[in-house]
Amino acid sequence: MSTGQNFISTSLVGGQDGTIFQDIYFRADNGSYMLNAADKGQLDPNHSIQQITVSSGWIVDGISITYQLVDGGSTTIQHGTQFPSAAVIKFNGDERLVGVYGRAGNQTYYKRALVNNINFVIFDTAKGTTRTVGPFGNNNKSNEGTPFYSSDVLAFGGFARWNSSEPIGLQGLFFYKKM
């Protein structure tokens, strides 16, 4: 007997130009979340994210998320353009991603809707403390787009384009959350 889908996705922020990505593939009958990666590993819902890497300049060009698997391993999924000098945000075993916020929408220089900047709020369950990391993007100080916020993010989805010779950007994001 199927237990049904046990996660939701938020509304899209930014644009939908490019290719859609959905880091959660499906929720299996046993209640596990399967990642949309080559190994289709089972996501650890209690500590889903080990690391986030953000490539940014005037916009958020790309993100890379390292997900924690139930078996103790991990898998990394990349979206958009990845820079060698990207910012790396590491999570310790007690930390959880409790908030993602920023601005997304029309970017006049690039003439399309993009993720213009992004920040992360991380909660340490052992110490009871939070830390905020960011902002990433908006280096031109334009503050274009509409503010967005999502809490208790389990995994990411969205739209991205990439090109090895030209940063094209993270077009839009939505967030998977446990119900």
Please give the domain count.
1
Largest sheet: 5 strands, antiparallel
CATH superfamily: Jacalin-like lectin domain
Cα distance spanning the termini: 19 Å
Query: Which series of helices and strands comes N to C?
Result: EEEEEEEEEEEEEEEE
Structural class: mainly beta
How much of the sequence lies in strands comes to: over 45%
CATH top level? Answer: Mainly Beta
Total count of helical runs of at least 4 residues: 0
General description of the model:
The chain is mainly β and 179 residues long. The protein has a single domain, classed as Vitelline Membrane Outer Layer Protein I, subunit A. 0% of the residues lie in helices and 57% in strands. Strands 1, 2, 3, 15 and 16 form a five-stranded antiparallel beta sheet that branches. The protein has a four-stranded antiparallel beta sheet with strand order 9-8-7-10, with no helix packed on it. Strands 13-12-11-14 form a four-stranded antiparallel beta sheet, with no helix packed on it. A hairpin with a 4-residue loop joins strand 12 and strand 13 (129-137). The radius of gyration is 16 Å and the shape is globular. The model has no long low-confidence stretch (mean pLDDT 85). It comes from Trametes cubensis.
Please tag this protein with its features.
single chain, 16 strands, Vitelline Membrane Outer Layer Protein I, subunit A, Jacalin-type lectin domain-containing protein, 179 residues, mainly beta, Jacalin-like_lectin_dom_sf, 5-stranded antiparallel sheet, Jacalin-like_lectin_dom
